[in-house]
Design brief:
GO terms for molecular function: RNA binding; rRNA pseudouridine synthase activity. InterPro entries: PsdUridine_s_RsuA/RluB/E/F_cat, PsdUridine_synth_cat_dom_sf, PsdUridine_synth_RsuA/RluA, PsdUridine_synth_RsuA/RluB/E/F, PsdUridine_synth_RsuA/RluB_CS, RsuA_PseudoU_synthase, S4_RNA-bd, S4_RNA-bd_sf. This is Pseudouridine synthase. With 238 residues, this protein is of the alpha+beta class. It has 3 domains: 2-55, Roll (Structural Genomics Hypothetical 15.5 Kd Protein In mrcA-pckA Intergenic Region, Chain A), CATH 3.10.290.10; 63-126 and 217-237, 2-Layer Sandwich (Alpha-Beta Plaits); 131-210, 2-Layer Sandwich (Alpha-Beta Plaits). The chain is built from 7 helices and 15 strands. Strands 7, 8, 9, 10, 11, 12, 13, 14 and 15 form a 9-stranded mixed β-sheet that branches. A hairpin with a 2-residue loop joins strand 2 (28-30) and strand 3. The two termini are 31 Å apart. The structure holds uracil. Residues 103-104, 107, 189-192, 205 line the site of uracil.
């Protein structure tokens, strides 16, 4: 059971005070009756709420795709830096969303943001083998030895042996390389540390795919949008 004013406020109908005023005006109905108490308890999935005669579409969860810009951290709060949640509009912030996994402060690209804890758990657990694809630029020439090492599972500086990862070379010269990397886990600085283990440095990193979802190229860095029903279905089914 939840309070009516909280439900409506979370759906973007205004502050609790504003909802109280709307109730007082008599424009809020629940199951055909005009509401008198803005704090009435109800089960939002089970009742029909009307505001100004229009049905309220209830939803508990939100699912957003952001093209994360550099310079913001993948956290909900931070003492020093702007967070990806700070970039959201208040109508999305009221859902208390959080990022699914983390991208480093200087990494850009596809970041999912939701308040669905269950889906989050499934997506970040290596057990579910969700592919994360990155476009990366490297300071040196990447070669077949690196491809083999990634496939076998790179040993990181802390002794952790990574799961097998796919490395595709797009361009390789002594001055630098362009590659795609596909990993199924999300260890701290994983892609950067995998290259460091090969004596190379990632100079640019952008996530372009998460599971079956591609980064929407029409999103500028810092922009985001809700996932479509179809995209959400693709994520849930894995
Ligand atoms: N690997 C990294 O090193 N950094 C990221 O942000 C994501 C994957």
């Amino acid at each position: 059971m939840e309070r009516l004013d909280k439900v409506l406020s979370n759906l973007g109908y205004g502050s609790r005070k504003e909802i109280k005023a709307m109730v007082k005006k008599g424009i809020v109905q629940v199951d055909g009756k005009i509401v008198k108490d803005n704090g009435m308890q109800l089960e939002p999935e089970k009742v029909k709420i009307l505001v100004n005669g229009e049905e309220v579409v209830y939803r508990k969860n939100i699912y957003l795709m952001m093209n994360k810009p550099a310079g913001v951290v993948s956290a909900t709060v931070d003492n020093y830096d702007e967070t990806v949640i700070d970039l959201l509009y208040p109508e999305h912030q009221v859902f208390d969303p959080f990022p699914v996994g983390r991208l480093d402060k200087d990494t850009v690209g596809l970041l999912l943001i939701t308040n669905d804890g269950e889906l989050n758990h499934k997506l970040i657990s290596p057990k579910w083998h969700v592919d994360k694809v990155y476009y990366a630029e490297i300071d040196k020439s990447v070669d077949e030895k690196d491809v083999k090492a990634f496939e076998a599972g790179v040993l990181l500086d802390d002794g952790y042996k990574c799961m097998s990862a796919k490395l595709e070379i797009l361009e390789a010269t002594e001055d630098g390389s362009k590659v795609y990397v596909t990993v199924q886990e999300g260890k701290y600085h994983q892609v950067k540390r995998m290259f460091e283990a090969q004596g190379k440095k990632v100079v640019y990193l952008r996530r372009i795919r998460f599971g079956k979802l591609d980064l929407d190229e029409s999103l500028q860095e810092g922009e985001y949008r809700e996932l479509t029903e179809e995209e959400l279905g693709m994520l849930i089914q894995g």
